[in-house]
């Protein structure tokens, strides 16, 4: 019996399920296959298939989805918090707040709010999310939890990288200290040998500079004969 798929590993293997579904679709008859493609592939991504320049605007895409889902419109409203930060609210035309984001940057706050709104509206259950505030709150809480989890994972990876860098730096410092110690020892030994050679050379020169005794001089002369 195959092992159950753990929820922690599911996001890493979503593409396998997608390939499996598409593979199954290819085995359907022509009419059923066309119905599936029209409903779940083209229909669910219609907001991306209209070739307009504003598709590069996340807010425009989110607004398009809302309008086609229940007829409301989506816009961003900006306000400043007591701490001097910028808060961007994704507001529906009936006055309800879909989501919000806070940042030091006015532009980044708008970008985060628009991206969050688009992520919510891209969900298959968007119609239920828009009609049920309690469920919408749970979705936002889950998204925030996943965001914090990703942030914690990134921080953990960065901490491990930093620790590895510190270990490599300490290892490099230790190797440098060992090389410097060897170099200093080698220099000291060479200096000592140089001093000893100089002392021997000086002793030899001094010995050669001393006058030869008469006895030794006669001995050397006799040796030459």
As residue ranges, the low-confidence spans are none
Number of strands: 3
Shape, principal axes of CA atoms: elongated
Count every helix, treating DSSP H or I runs of 4 or more residues as helices. Answer: 8
Q: Structural class of the helix and strand makeup? A: mainly alpha
Mean pLDDT: 83
- Give the strand order of the largest sheet, numbering strands 1, 2, ... along the chain: 1-2-3
Gap between N and C termini, in Å? Answer: 113 Å
SSE pattern, N- to C-terminal: HHHHEEEHHHH
Q: Please outline the major beta sheet.
A: 3 strands, antiparallel
Report the radius of gyration as a whole number of Å.
41 Å
Percentage of β-strand residues: 5-15%
- Helix fraction, binned, reads 55-70%
Word description of this protein:
The protein is built from eight helices and three strands, in the order H-H-H-H-E-E-E-H-H-H-H. With 225 residues, the protein is mainly α. It has a three-stranded antiparallel beta sheet. Strand 1 (74-80) and strand 2 (86-92) form a beta hairpin. Helix 4 (58-70) runs parallel beside helix 5. The radius of gyration is 41 Å and the shape is elongated.
Please give the structural blueprint.
Blueprint: H1 14-25, H2 30-42, H3 46-49, H4 58-70, E1 74-80, E2 86-92, E3 97-103, H5 106-121, H6 126-131, H7 133-209, H8 214-224
Antiparallel strand pairs: 1-2, 2-3
Quick gist of this model?
By secondary structure, the protein is mainly alpha-helical. The chain has eight helices and three strands.
Characteristic terms for this protein:
mainly alpha; 3 strands; elongated; 225 residues; 9% strand; single chain; 3-stranded antiparallel β-sheet
